[in-house]
Specification:
By secondary structure, the protein is α/β, with parallel strands linked by helices. It is about 45% helix and about 20% strand. It contains ten helices and eight strands. The protein is globular and about 40 Å long. The protein starts with 10 loop residues before the first strand and ends with a helix. Bound molecules: xanthosine-5'-monophosphate. It holds the Pfam family OMPdecase.
Protein backbone atom coordinates (compact mmCIF):
# COMPACT_ATOMS: atom_id res chain seq x y z
CA UNK A 1 0.00 0.00 0.00
CA UNK A 2 1.60 3.26 -1.13
CA UNK A 3 0.45 5.65 1.57
CA UNK A 4 2.18 8.57 3.25
CA UNK A 5 2.17 6.91 6.68
CA UNK A 6 5.38 6.91 8.66
CA UNK A 7 6.21 3.23 8.98
CA UNK A 8 8.59 3.84 11.86
CA UNK A 9 6.09 5.83 13.95
CA UNK A 10 4.68 4.03 16.96
CA UNK A 11 1.59 6.22 17.08
CA UNK A 12 -1.89 5.23 15.98
CA UNK A 13 -4.05 8.33 15.91
CA UNK A 14 -7.60 7.83 17.29
CA UNK A 15 -9.71 10.09 15.09
CA UNK A 16 -12.72 10.38 17.39
CA UNK A 17 -14.55 13.28 15.79
CA UNK A 18 -18.01 13.45 14.19
CA UNK A 19 -17.44 16.03 11.49
CA UNK A 20 -16.29 14.83 8.05
CA UNK A 21 -14.30 17.92 7.10
CA UNK A 22 -12.54 18.03 10.47
CA UNK A 23 -11.74 14.33 10.16
CA UNK A 24 -10.40 14.61 6.60
CA UNK A 25 -8.34 17.68 7.47
CA UNK A 26 -6.78 15.96 10.49
CA UNK A 27 -6.10 12.79 8.46
CA UNK A 28 -4.47 14.80 5.64
CA UNK A 29 -2.29 16.80 8.00
CA UNK A 30 -1.26 14.01 10.34
CA UNK A 31 -1.00 10.94 8.08
CA UNK A 32 2.72 11.23 7.45
CA UNK A 33 3.44 11.34 11.20
CA UNK A 34 1.54 8.24 12.29
CA UNK A 35 1.63 4.50 11.69
CA UNK A 36 -2.15 4.36 11.17
CA UNK A 37 -5.39 6.13 11.97
CA UNK A 38 -8.07 4.43 14.07
CA UNK A 39 -11.71 5.37 13.58
CA UNK A 40 -14.49 4.59 15.99
CA UNK A 41 -18.29 4.84 15.76
CA UNK A 42 -18.60 8.66 16.02
CA UNK A 43 -17.31 9.48 12.52
CA UNK A 44 -19.07 6.46 10.96
CA UNK A 45 -22.43 7.22 12.55
CA UNK A 46 -22.28 10.81 11.35
CA UNK A 47 -21.00 10.17 7.81
CA UNK A 48 -21.69 6.56 6.88
CA UNK A 49 -19.30 3.73 6.10
CA UNK A 50 -17.94 5.41 2.92
CA UNK A 51 -15.85 7.67 5.13
CA UNK A 52 -13.53 4.64 5.56
CA UNK A 53 -12.66 4.74 1.83
CA UNK A 54 -12.18 8.51 1.93
CA UNK A 55 -9.83 8.33 4.91
CA UNK A 56 -7.97 5.35 3.42
CA UNK A 57 -6.57 7.71 0.76
CA UNK A 58 -4.40 9.25 3.48
CA UNK A 59 -3.50 6.46 5.89
CA UNK A 60 -4.04 2.88 6.92
CA UNK A 61 -7.42 2.85 8.66
CA UNK A 62 -8.21 0.63 11.63
CA UNK A 63 -11.92 0.34 12.42
CA UNK A 64 -12.43 0.15 16.17
CA UNK A 65 -15.88 -1.42 16.07
CA UNK A 66 -15.23 -3.75 19.02
CA UNK A 67 -17.25 -6.53 17.44
CA UNK A 68 -19.05 -8.55 20.09
CA UNK A 69 -21.74 -10.67 18.52
CA UNK A 70 -22.40 -14.21 17.37
CA UNK A 71 -20.21 -15.49 14.57
CA UNK A 72 -22.61 -14.82 11.67
CA UNK A 73 -23.25 -11.19 12.62
CA UNK A 74 -19.55 -10.52 13.23
CA UNK A 75 -18.81 -12.07 9.84
CA UNK A 76 -21.39 -9.87 8.06
CA UNK A 77 -19.98 -6.72 9.63
CA UNK A 78 -16.35 -7.69 8.95
CA UNK A 79 -17.01 -8.44 5.28
CA UNK A 80 -18.73 -5.09 4.85
CA UNK A 81 -15.89 -3.16 6.51
CA UNK A 82 -13.34 -4.97 4.30
CA UNK A 83 -15.21 -3.84 1.16
CA UNK A 84 -14.49 -0.21 2.06
CA UNK A 85 -10.73 -0.68 2.19
CA UNK A 86 -10.04 -0.66 5.93
CA UNK A 87 -6.55 -1.89 6.84
CA UNK A 88 -7.60 -3.31 10.19
CA UNK A 89 -10.55 -4.07 12.44
CA UNK A 90 -10.89 -4.45 16.22
CA UNK A 91 -13.02 -7.20 17.72
CA UNK A 92 -13.77 -8.10 21.30
CA UNK A 93 -12.51 -11.52 22.35
CA UNK A 94 -14.92 -12.20 25.21
CA UNK A 95 -17.60 -13.52 22.85
CA UNK A 96 -15.41 -16.59 22.37
CA UNK A 97 -13.20 -18.28 19.84
CA UNK A 98 -16.03 -19.08 17.39
CA UNK A 99 -16.75 -15.39 16.85
CA UNK A 100 -13.05 -14.51 16.69
CA UNK A 101 -12.43 -17.20 14.09
CA UNK A 102 -15.35 -15.90 12.03
CA UNK A 103 -13.84 -12.40 12.08
CA UNK A 104 -10.38 -13.64 11.08
CA UNK A 105 -11.83 -15.80 8.30
CA UNK A 106 -13.99 -13.05 6.82
CA UNK A 107 -11.39 -10.26 7.17
CA UNK A 108 -9.60 -11.01 3.89
CA UNK A 109 -6.54 -8.74 3.72
CA UNK A 110 -7.61 -6.81 6.83
CA UNK A 111 -5.64 -7.23 10.04
CA UNK A 112 -7.71 -8.33 13.02
CA UNK A 113 -6.95 -7.04 16.51
CA UNK A 114 -8.73 -8.43 19.56
CA UNK A 115 -9.35 -6.67 22.87
CA UNK A 116 -7.90 -8.71 25.74
CA UNK A 117 -7.95 -6.06 28.45
CA UNK A 118 -9.46 -2.57 28.60
CA UNK A 119 -7.86 0.73 29.53
CA UNK A 120 -10.45 0.99 32.28
CA UNK A 121 -11.22 -1.80 34.75
CA UNK A 122 -13.84 -4.19 33.44
CA UNK A 123 -15.20 -7.69 33.91
CA UNK A 124 -12.82 -9.07 31.29
CA UNK A 125 -9.94 -8.33 33.69
CA UNK A 126 -10.56 -11.73 35.27
CA UNK A 127 -10.10 -13.66 32.04
CA UNK A 128 -7.45 -11.76 30.09
CA UNK A 129 -5.19 -14.84 29.91
CA UNK A 130 -7.98 -16.92 28.34
CA UNK A 131 -8.72 -14.10 25.91
CA UNK A 132 -5.06 -14.01 24.85
CA UNK A 133 -5.09 -17.78 24.43
CA UNK A 134 -8.24 -17.74 22.28
CA UNK A 135 -6.93 -14.81 20.24
CA UNK A 136 -3.68 -16.61 19.44
CA UNK A 137 -5.55 -19.80 18.54
CA UNK A 138 -7.93 -17.87 16.29
CA UNK A 139 -4.98 -16.36 14.42
CA UNK A 140 -5.52 -12.65 15.02
CA UNK A 141 -2.83 -10.24 13.78
CA UNK A 142 -2.63 -8.33 17.06
CA UNK A 143 -4.02 -7.61 20.50
CA UNK A 144 -5.41 -4.48 22.16
CA UNK A 145 -4.14 -4.03 25.71
CA UNK A 146 -4.01 -1.04 28.07
CA UNK A 147 -1.13 1.44 27.85
CA UNK A 148 -2.23 3.08 31.09
CA UNK A 149 -1.97 -0.21 33.03
CA UNK A 150 1.64 -1.20 32.33
CA UNK A 151 1.68 -4.09 34.84
CA UNK A 152 -1.28 -5.67 33.09
CA UNK A 153 0.23 -4.91 29.69
CA UNK A 154 3.49 -6.61 30.69
CA UNK A 155 1.60 -9.74 31.83
CA UNK A 156 -0.15 -9.83 28.47
CA UNK A 157 3.14 -9.40 26.59
CA UNK A 158 4.69 -12.21 28.64
CA UNK A 159 2.06 -14.73 27.56
CA UNK A 160 1.57 -13.62 23.97
CA UNK A 161 4.99 -14.04 22.34
CA UNK A 162 5.86 -11.48 19.69
CA UNK A 163 2.36 -10.77 18.39
CA UNK A 164 1.68 -7.06 17.77
CA UNK A 165 0.13 -5.17 20.68
CA UNK A 166 -1.62 -1.86 20.15
CA UNK A 167 -2.31 0.06 23.33
CA UNK A 168 -4.76 2.87 24.15
CA UNK A 169 -4.70 4.94 27.33
CA UNK A 170 -1.84 7.42 26.89
CA UNK A 171 -2.50 11.09 27.58
CA UNK A 172 -6.16 11.75 28.44
CA UNK A 173 -6.48 8.39 30.24
CA UNK A 174 -3.28 8.98 32.23
CA UNK A 175 -0.89 6.53 30.58
CA UNK A 176 2.70 7.20 29.69
CA UNK A 177 4.16 6.35 26.30
CA UNK A 178 7.54 5.16 27.58
CA UNK A 179 6.20 2.82 30.25
CA UNK A 180 3.74 1.36 27.75
CA UNK A 181 6.47 0.62 25.21
CA UNK A 182 8.74 -0.78 27.94
CA UNK A 183 5.87 -3.04 29.04
CA UNK A 184 5.57 -4.46 25.54
CA UNK A 185 3.34 -2.27 23.37
CA UNK A 186 4.31 -2.02 19.69
CA UNK A 187 2.00 0.88 18.89
CA UNK A 188 0.32 3.48 21.09
CA UNK A 189 -3.22 4.67 20.35
CA UNK A 190 -3.73 8.36 21.16
CA UNK A 191 -6.81 10.46 20.53
CA UNK A 192 -7.77 13.46 22.67
CA UNK A 193 -4.20 14.56 23.46
CA UNK A 194 -3.76 15.06 19.71
CA UNK A 195 -7.10 16.21 18.28
CA UNK A 196 -7.93 18.44 21.28
CA UNK A 197 -4.50 20.06 21.13
CA UNK A 198 -4.25 23.58 19.65
CA UNK A 199 -1.32 22.13 17.65
CA UNK A 200 -2.12 18.49 16.67
CA UNK A 201 0.96 18.15 14.42
CA UNK A 202 3.21 19.44 17.23
CA UNK A 203 1.53 17.05 19.68
CA UNK A 204 2.19 14.04 17.45
CA UNK A 205 5.78 15.13 16.87
CA UNK A 206 6.29 15.23 20.65
CA UNK A 207 4.86 11.73 21.06
CA UNK A 208 7.01 10.45 18.18
CA UNK A 209 10.13 11.98 19.73
CA UNK A 210 9.29 10.41 23.08
CA UNK A 211 8.71 6.99 21.53
CA UNK A 212 11.96 7.02 19.56
CA UNK A 213 14.05 7.99 22.59
CA UNK A 214 13.92 4.37 23.73
P1 LIG B 1 -8.03 8.77 23.96
O1 LIG B 1 -8.76 10.01 23.59
O2 LIG B 1 -8.40 8.24 25.31
O3 LIG B 1 -8.54 7.71 22.87
O4 LIG B 1 -6.54 8.88 23.78
C1 LIG B 1 -8.36 6.33 23.02
C2 LIG B 1 -9.03 5.61 21.89
O5 LIG B 1 -8.90 4.22 22.11
C3 LIG B 1 -10.17 3.66 22.38
N1 LIG B 1 -10.00 2.85 23.57
C4 LIG B 1 -9.94 1.57 23.59
N2 LIG B 1 -10.02 0.71 22.59
N3 LIG B 1 -9.70 -1.05 24.15
C5 LIG B 1 -9.91 -0.60 22.87
O6 LIG B 1 -10.00 -1.41 21.96
C6 LIG B 1 -9.63 -0.22 25.19
O7 LIG B 1 -9.44 -0.62 26.31
C7 LIG B 1 -9.75 1.15 24.88
N4 LIG B 1 -9.70 2.22 25.66
C8 LIG B 1 -9.84 3.27 24.82
C9 LIG B 1 -11.15 4.76 22.59
O8 LIG B 1 -12.43 4.39 22.14
C10 LIG B 1 -10.53 5.86 21.78
O9 LIG B 1 -10.89 5.73 20.42
Amino acid sequence: MDLPTMEDSKIIFALDVYDRDTGIELAKNLADQVFAIKVNWPIILENGIKIISELSKYSKIICDFKLADVENTDKLITEKVAQYGAWGIISHAFTGIKSLRAVVKSAGQMKVFSVVSMSQESYIDNVYDKLVDDSLKAGVFGLVAPANRPDRLKKIRDISGDIKIIAPGVGAQGGNIISAIMAGADYIIIGRSIYDSPDPIGAIKKFNDEATKL
